Amino acid sequence: MLKFQAQVYRINDIVGWHDRRELVLSPEFQRRRVWSPHGRSYLLDSIIRGMPLPQFFIREKVLLREKRTVREVVDGQQRLTTILDFLSGKITILPIHNTEYARTTFDNLPEATQRELLSFPLSFNILEGTDDADVLEIFSRLNAYTVPLNRQELLNARYVGAFKRHLDELSKRHLAYWQRHGILSNSAIARMRDVEFTAELVAAMLGGLQNQKRIVAELYARYDSEFPQASYIEPRFAETLELSEQLLNGNISATEFSKISLFYSLFAATYDLMYGLGSTEHATRTPLSPTGFTDAQQGLLRLNEALTTDTRPAEYAPFFSAIQQSTDKIQQRLVRHDILREILVAAFH
């Protein structure tokens, strides 16, 4: 039977292993993939903020002639290398992840922060007397229990820069909104659907209506180093959510617009009338019309009522057709957008 034990070590313990040459970071079976500077910075920021890290796997070998134990890193080589490089002053955290400690070497951190970092706990699984074949079998079995990553989870794993950070924060900031209005279930949120949907809405704000979700991956890549638009996109995003809620009398969950495809259209039409899809930071918000706002509300509620009846009025036929299938394709989104914009325009001067 294979022997292994769970053990918690501090970062300072790892430093000791490394200094005594008891840590083997590149055993023969270890993968050679190198992390990007963004990935390394993101890991360091996680430690600085006290976030837990995934488990590490190491294999212990007793060297009888030398009467000492060496530890081969089976999984976690890049993470441990990043930590050791930071402690030795070779790398620093990037501003996109942490403005307080950006470009600051470990030796120049406050002493309290240095102490906390060195005592940061790392969770290890220690493999004892395990040969290479056993190591490969272990990871084969671990992967067998892993749920395949969906599209958004893959993006989240691949990109750790500016756009990812802002999208994560933005979706988290409005988590209660998605839940309160029944737009996203808890199970969907657990698989990062809230982040993906936030990215779709931001994509519409930046460049107009999008065809499915193809643009999302492009935005992660384009704005990985910096996302300056966040300064105006984030407050406008909150404004648009609030106004969308008001247009449905604060109760989106009781309407058909709690469905993702319809809420996307409501949000896009509202933002288009407020600032204009694809507008820059210099765009001014179109003021609301108090009298027209009520008319827009009533028009939106009439459309919702029509969506819930078996006999659908002919005047909404194009809208009905645009929600039957492929609801995230550009043709259907354009039809819904034009109709909703025509209903909501009364709310604006």
Outline the structure in words.
The chain has helices at 11-19, 37-48, 77-87, 111-118, 132-144, 151-158, 162-173, 175-180, 186-190, 193-207, 214-222, 230-247, 260-274, 290-307, 317-321, 330-344, and strands at 3-10, 23-24, 56-63, 68-75, 121-128. It is of the alpha/beta class and 349 residues long. A 5-stranded mixed sheet has the order 1-5-3-4-2, with helices on one face. Helix 13 (260-274) crosses helix 16 (330-344). The longest helix has 18 residues, at 230-247.
How many beta-strand elements?
Answer: 5
Strand content: 5-15%
Class inferred from helices and paired strands: alpha/beta
- Unreliable stretches covering 5 or more consecutive residues: none
Order of adjacent strands in the largest pleated sheet: 1-5-3-4-2
What is the succession of H and E elements? EHEHEEHHEHHHHHHHHHHHH
The amount of helix comes to 40-55%
Distance between the termini: 76 Å
- Let me know the largest β-sheet: 5 strands, mixed
Computed Rg: 26 Å
- What do the pLDDT scores average to? 92
The count of helical stretches stands at: 16
Gross morphology is elongated
Topology:
Blueprint: E1 3-10, H1 11-19, E2 23-24, H2 37-48, E3 56-63, E4 68-75, H3 77-87, H4 111-118, E5 121-128, H5 132-144, H6 151-158, H7 162-173, H8 175-180, H9 186-190, H10 193-207, H11 214-222, H12 230-247, H13 260-274, H14 290-307, H15 317-321, H16 330-344
Parallel strand pairs: 2-4, 3-5
Antiparallel strand pairs: 1-5, 3-4
Helix pairs in contact: 2-3, 7-10, 10-13, 12-13, 13-16
